[in-house]
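Write out this protein's structure.
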Amino acid sequence: MRDRVVQAALVAVLEPIFEAKFLGCSFGFRPGRSPRQALDRVSQALAQGQTWVVDADIRGCFDNIPHAPVIAEVAREVADGTVLALLTAFLKAGVLEGQDFQPTEIGTPQGAVLTPRTQKVIGIRRRLGRPSNRWGRAIRSGIG
């Protein structure tokens, strides 16, 4: 239980910092945004003549999030060593498989409060700036 409380505290610290960096078309795991709003956005795009929508679910996404880029992106915005140490400890907490402890070098814990935010932070780091063509815009925005 304490682990989830600490994660929720990290979310409370990090979310306002990174929320402004997320693309406007991103609706998942964001305060004040809902699946209904995402559907409304799709309806608006279709009404404006768009003819297709990209919806992707990446298998094993959370299992394969590399730690270093997440920590680096957070460190670019957060100077507090305690926050960075907690984030690092969360990412590198490891897992118990039976009686065996397995360290984690990649991935984030399934079902953890902070896990969806790590995927979004890595998305900020990997985003390729302004789209140069329609296909690039569609992939990054989710609307073609």
